Amino acid sequence: DKLLNNNKQCGSIKKCLECQTSNINNKKQLCPNCNAKLPTINELKQLNEPLVIANNTEKSLSEWELSEEMKNFSELAHTKRIEFIQKILIEKNFTRTWHPLTITSEEANFQKFKNSLSKKEILSIINSLLPYLNDLDHL
């Protein structure tokens, strides 16, 4: 900012972005070396502003200390998302049984052993589906 203020007083703040010539008179619209269009003073200020904003943001965040939950936010969000999806699927599933997808053969074998349906559960599923069958299908 001090550099900009000093150059404003001198009247030569402009810089050519094409050939990198600096200290060009503020009233000039074209570069004296390459005839490229020069940015306005406001455009030059805007080029410098993002750096200032980024530095201020970094400083303000360092003042705050994050909780352990926020440090592990991605992992926590992933777990909560899975729990939410499972809850919704179980609510929409009329049998109220949940069978997650397995990826490895070990997981599949374990899931079969863990979630194999009992005779009572199988009969319950069959009975819940009977009303949806046509009369001819009951034979």
Automatic annotation (TrEMBL):
Source domain of life: Eukaryota
Protein name, per record: 7226_t:CDS:1
Species: Racocetra fulgida
Taxonomic lineage: Eukaryota, Fungi, Fungi incertae sedis, Mucoromycota, Glomeromycotina
